[in-house]
Amino acid sequence: MLTPHDTPVLIVTGPPGVGKTTAVGMLVERWPKAVHLEADRFFGFIRSGHVEPWKPESHAQNEAVMNVVAGAAGGYAKAGYFTVVDGIVIPTWFFEPLRDALKKAGHSVAYAVLRAPPSLCAERLAAREDIPLAEPDVIERLWASFTALGPLERHAIDVDGMSPEQVAEALAGRLADGSLAV
Q: What is d(CA 93, CA 96) in angstroms, rounded to the nearest whole number?
């Protein structure tokens, strides 16, 4: 098994409802010291001047939030924790600021994009009671933002038909073999 000292900070992303948080929760239990950092929660810390992160005018805010997330993730990783950032880290908006801040702080980075059909994601979102849903067109755009990854395509994991345990196992395997490194 990899230890926190030879493991990169892992960014696990995908559309809402794909199963990120559940799978990451299972993944981090495999390490003696691990942190599950839910990046999407950091947007909620902004109390005044908040802009919905999917709007074009949110770019500066999003970059600031990703830098804060990177600082928290980097701090945990430096302290010897296997650190997983779980969130909607869209390749064209959030990924580069987060990756670059982590690398600038001296951390290696791995990136995994979980994918499932929109119908499965929608079904899971509808079952949530604790998280308010965004408007359907926003959910559809978020889902679409993970379909054409270009050079990041090799980081995609199709989770349709997989249990959360199987997703955690796939993440662990891809992390161990280095295929998620960026």
A: 7
Residue 70 lies in a domain: yes
For the entire predicted model, the pTM comes to 0.89
In a domain, 159, yes or no: yes
Model confidence at 129, pLDDT cuts 50, 70, 90, reads low
Query: What does each C-alpha distance from 60 to 52, 64, 90, 94 come to in angstroms?
Result: 12, 6, 15, 11
Residue 13 CA to residue 18 CA, distance in Å, equals 9
Q: What is the average pLDDT value for the chain, to the nearest integer?
A: 88
Q: Which residue type sits at 75?
A: G
Q: What is the spatial distance between Cα 182 and Cα 131, in angstroms, rounded to a whole number?
A: 31
> In sequence order, which ranges of 79-157 are alpha helices (DSSP H)?
96-104, 118-127, 136-144
Residue appearing with tokens 């929660």: 41
What's the domain count of the chain?
A: 1
Domain that holds residue 20: 4-176
Distance separating alpha carbons of residues 25 and 34, to the nearest angstrom? 10
